[in-house]
Amino acid sequence: MHSVPVGGSVDRSKRLKRHHSLQRAKPPPDKQKKKMASYKVEQLPSPLSVLGEGPHWDVERQSLYYNDIYGGSIHRYDYAENKTYNATIDGFPVISFIIPVKGNDRHFIIGTDRKVTLVDWDGRSEKATFVRTVGEVEPTMEDNRFNDAKVDSKGRFYGGTMRLEAKGDIFEMRLGTFYRYDAKQGKFVTLKEKIGVSNGLCWNETGNLFYYIDSCDLDVKEYQVDANGDISGERVVIDFRVNGERPPFVPDGMTIDANGSLYVATFGGSTVYKVNSKTGKVELEIKLPCEQVTSAAFGGPNLDILYVTTAAKEFKSPQPAPAGALFAVTGLGVKGTPMYPVDLS
Prior knowledge:
The chain is mainly beta. It is built from no helices and 25 strands. It has strands at about 20, 35-45, 50-60, 65-70, 75-80, 85-90, 100, 105-110, 115-120, 125-135, 145-150, 155-165, 175-180, 185-195, 200-205, 210-215, 220-225, 230-240, 250-255, 260-265, 270-275, 280-285, 295-300, 305-310, 325-330. The strands form five sheets. The chain has an eight-stranded mixed beta sheet, with no helix packed on it. The chain has a five-stranded antiparallel beta sheet with strand order 1-2-25-24-23, with no helix packed on it. The protein is globular and about 50 Å long.
């Protein structure tokens, strides 16, 4: 079994929650003798989130930032300390994402309703403070909110909206829009419209291919990225429907490894699927001990730990602990790609 080196004196093996040994999904007969891929899933010390989301690994601080959307909180898991710090911001009960800001290690952007908001946080205090509003979309669409957001290697912000879950079934209406933010002009550029739930997004290592999930489409799409950051040339990588029928989950957050494989969290599926981005084949099913798996990001000193967020909120059925926990998956034998701070200059 591949073991991941860890820093400090923390014996993580003693806190191991679950171990799985899996092989590639439905391997052809000639590949039955392939060495099995082993991994470990460990619950990390952190609060149980109502709707944990937005994991972002900060290389400089060796920390994972993430947010609890309906818990209205932001979090920093410190790798060296094996501890999670938590904060709230007065006046912001819903927080859709958190991303560090380039050039200021106390500044972060968060998603608040349909706004991108700049806050100040030292990463340890229980309170962060409002600095200013960076920008706003859809000012009259009060039933919408920002959802998932990320930043490309050039520091450009990408994020999309969705109708609030409390307003009805997510498949009923497509009121969301997907944007990028042009910091120099101080405006949002529309990339896609009629989105159900704007979700998982990531780029390949060279940045010329972009992967995107609208949860209501039940698939992952690939796009070409031009110099301005605009996208074109849509291609479906994988469709999660089974014989045209909805699966018992929706694809949610997503990340990518240095080989170009995608890791798709499934809300309602207890699984992160490793998907070959070229063939669309599922290469590995990473099982989690809770149903509502929301997102994933690679981190750790070697970028070889997959951090996974989950949700405890009861949407359709009760979600017992450890639902809402933050997990670390080790032993995958791959490395992720760096994540980047947003450039607001």
